[in-house]
Amino acid sequence: MDIRVLGLARDLRTNTPVVYAQLPIEDYLEVVGDEFENFTIQRRRENHKAYQRLKVDIAGGALLPSITLAVKPDKVRAIIPLFEKAEVDNARYGELARALSTKGQVDILDGLQRTYIITDLKKEGVDFVSGQNIHVEFWLEADIDKLIYRIIILNAGQKPMSIRHQIELLFMSLKASIEKQIPDLDIYTERDNTRRTKAKKFALSAIVSAYQAFITGSAELQKGNVIANQLLESNALDATEEEITSQFEEFTRWLTIYAALDECVTRVYKSANVPLEQVPPEEVEPTKAPLIHGGAYANWLSTENVIMAFFAAVAQYGGSDSKKKDRVDQALKMLLGALANAGEGGDPLGLEVFEKIRVGTNPRRVNVGLATRRLLTNGFKEFFRESGEIRLEQCWPIAA
Fold first, then answer.
1. pTM to 2 decimals?
2. What's the start-to-end Cα distance of the chain, in Å?
3. Helices 392-399, 368-385: crossing angle, 10 deg rounding
4. Do residues 379 and 354 make contact, with C-beta atoms less than 8 angstroms apart?
5. What's the 3-state SS for 34-89?
6. Fewest CB within 10 angstroms: 134, 251, 380, 383, which?
7. pLDDT of residue 400
8. Hey, is 179 helix, strand or coil?
9. How far is Cα 9 from Cα 20, in angstroms, rounded to an integer?
């Protein structure tokens, strides 16, 4: 593989090392590997007409704009010393180039569509023009705090990337790290072709929704009022690196507690006759609400409406007030205790009451999903406000 390092730089805001390099177009495909699209899980391949022209141009030898790659966090530490040696002595560029040549150790930050086109040409048997090269930026960032800041803040200023997409990129990068921090946590994607088969196993899309609800303080992630939605997102992005880092650490702490709750809920509400993987994770239609202990609510905490409402309620009520956060902590300790002491067939979440209220929603007059999220958010907030001294089954009617 023929990678030629052209120069080195550092992003002075985050002190992130950057390597500017050039390599043959076929070698580029080796560097990104066969699963390059896995980094941007929700992003779809585009089919604009302009890409058909670009495909013809690439086959003809066109020079492309540089592509930005990020070396995966667990691989960065081995490469940094070589970068530092090359900073002092550019005769060491060759060592750095060889370290960057490992297949599949990078994610694509910018250049996914171009990579799709190049891959298509390769599969079609196109012989690339001799000497056709690609210019690449390799970002070497192992510090999770700075990676969070880069993805959420810097990308927002460089291109019109939605906050949802930024968070998806963030969690795809940090998935392994979060799983290490929270015992037995298992985050799966649609591409994994799997289902929830045990407690503490959550879809990545649900975790993304939870974090978005947490940083915006709202469970309404698709607001009809465009201006209101933009204000929520801009407020979430208008923060310093330290604030975002602290916010992410706080979210991880609440997620740890949430995973422990999920383990208890799965045990209390499961059915011996219904394996967990056969329980639909989606919300049941109000007109078809099953019996609470028929096994359908073993996955209750993994449903997107519930997880969004929980984290929105934590953000709305707890906020930055340490006394209120203590109330949330106390409430969740009380709930964990109630769940731990409940036998199978108990209802510590008050879901029988919750379902009666939810089923009573008139779908002709209100949006059922919206009403459900509001009921959940307000119910959790009421529970936090009382430090868990009243049961959830008493909170749902108050919330309604």
1. 0.64
2. 64
3. 130
4. yes
5. CCHHHHCCCCCCCCCHHHHHHHHHHHCCCCCCCEEEEECHHHHHHHHHHHHHHHHC
6. 251
7. 83
8. helix
9. 8
